[in-house]
Design goal:
About 25% of the residues lie in helices and about 25% in strands. The chain has a six-stranded antiparallel beta sheet, with helices on one face. β2 and β3 form a beta hairpin. It is of the alpha+beta class and about 130 residues long. It has a single domain, classed as Aspartate Aminotransferase, domain 1.
Length: about 130
């Protein structure tokens, strides 16, 4: 029997090992504090924050780390993110909560609010991204 997928961020955190939960708890706290206007929910089985329906930031448990993903992160000026995928996303990976640099994370969150690519309409545009 498979474990049901979590439907809330609290349930997502509850299923994690202690070290991974500590990483996710710290990320969530900082994201919620600095993007209070964002809608947060489980999307494609992972916690994701949205502004006006557009995915901004999220995280997911990988085999060996927790990946923090910014959908428009390749357009940010603050260093520390690595390109991810074929669009504009960029990531940072953590294996412990003390690896999170809160100053960099706050800078990325501020940039995420101001620099957005329109992922909400990517299907309608047949895979073409436009900057908002």
């Amino acid at each position: 029997m498979t474990t049901p997928k979590p439907t809330t961020i609290d349930a997502y955190h509850a299923q994690l090992a202690d070290t991974d939960r500590a990483v996710c708890d710290r990320l969530r706290h900082i994201i919620d504090q600095h993007l209070p206007e964002a809608e947060s929910k489980i999307w494609h089985a992972h916690p994701v924050w949205f502004l006006d329906g557009n995915p901004i930031v999220g995280y997911s448990k990988l085999k060996d780390s927790v990946r923090l993903l910014f959908w428009s992160g390749q357009s940010f000026e603050t260093p520390g993110l690595q390109p991810e995928g074929t669009f504009k996303a960029a990531e940072a990976r953590y294996t412990a909560a003390d690896q999170i640099n809160p100053n960099a994370l706050v800078s990325w969150l501020n940039e995420a609010r101001n620099i957005q690519w329109d992922y909400k309409n990517i299907v309608k545009r047949k895979g073409r991204l436009e900057r908002l």
